[in-house]
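Structural prep section.
Before we set up the soaks we want a predicted structure of the protein with manganese (II) ion in place, mainly to decide which crystallisation condition to try first. Input record follows.
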Amino acid sequence: EECARIRERLEAGGARVSAARVSGRDVLICADARATLGEAAFDALRGLADVVPIPEPYKLASRRVRDATHVRVGGPRPTVVGATTLALIAGPCSVEGLPMLRGTARAVAAAGASMLRGGAFKPRTSPYAFQGLGVAALEMLSTVRAETGLPVVTEIMDARQLDAMLPHVDVFQVGARNMQNFSLLAALGDIRRPVLLKRGAAATIEELLLAAEHVLARGNGEVVLCERGVRAHETRTRNTLDVAAVPVLQRETHLPVIVDPSHAAGRADLVLPLSLAAVAAGADGLMIEVHPTPATALSDGDQSLTFDAFAALLRTLEPVATAVGRTLPASADTAVDSRLDTALVPRAAVATPARRENAIGRVA
Ligand code: PEP
Ligand code: MN
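Run finished without errors. Recording the C-alpha cells verbatim:
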C-alpha cells in the first residue's frame, strides 16, 4: 500500500514511474524523483526503505540495486543459479528423439550436470536445416524431466509458443538471434519463470543488460545472462568467446552470468579450455552441448561433446572451481529406473558415480 501511495504521489507530480519486484523488494524507477516532489515532501514519504541513484541506463539490472540475485529454478529437483555452486546445464543442441534425450540426460546427470538443455524450436540460419521437433520435443523433455529430476532449459523463439511451452519448461532460453526481440522479452517479463538470455553475436554488454531490463521492468526478476561468443574477424572458431564480458557483467549487474563455450567455439576440442577459462573468470555456470554420437547429430555435432568427454570435463573443472571458491553440483541420484532405456548410455555413466570429497569434506 505504501508503495502504491508513493507511486501515485510521483505520478501526480508528473513523473513516469515503473515498478518491479526484485527478490521480494518493491522497486520504483523514476527520473528525478526528488525534484518532482520537492525535497521536503520527498523526505517525508513513508515506506521508502532506500533511495539509490542509478546513472546507468539499465536500472533494475544494475548492481546498485542489489549485490547478487540467486535465480531459483523449479522442477522436481529445484536448483539455484548465482550461488556458490556452479549451474551446469548440459544436453543436446536439439532434441532428436526420446531415446537419445533420455540417454543424454542420464549421462550428464551421472557426470554432475544440474539441468538439462535441448532445443525443441531451433533457430537455424538455413530454412532447409533441421528446425527441431517442436511440441513433440517438449513432451520428451517433460518425460525425461520426470524421470531424472533435471530441470529443463529450452529455447522459445516466439511469444506465441509460450502457452504450449509453460507445462514443459523450467527455464526459457532466449537465443542470441532473439536477444532484442522486444515483444518476446515482454511476454517473458509477464510470467514468473526464469529466463536464460543469451548475448547477441553482435550485441554490446550494455545492449545485453538493456535486453534483460525489458524482462525485469515487467516484473520478472529471474534472469540469467549468457555469454556465448561474439562475431569478430577470427575464422578458426565459430564465434569469439568474450571472456572479459564475465567479470565486466559481474561488476555491472547482480544477475547471474553463465557461459556457453559450445557455441563460442563451434569445436568440441575447445569446449574444455573455454570452460576452464569461463569458471576461472567468475562465471556462475556453463551451458554445454552433449550428444550420444556427435558425428550423427542433426545440429551442432562439431561442437558437441561425447558423454565421456563431458564427464572428463567436469573432473578437470573441479580443481579450477575450487580455486575460485566454487563447487560443482552434487551428482544426481542415478539409481537405475527399470523403465528407462539405457542403451545409449555408456556403462561408466550409468554406474553410480564415484562420490568425491572436496577440501572442506563436503561430498561433491
Ligand atoms: C543454442 O543454444 O542451441 C543456440 C541456438 O544458441 P545461440 O542462440 O547462442 O546461437
Ligand atoms: Mn546448438
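Observations: The longest helix spans residues 307-323.
Flagged for discussion at group meeting.
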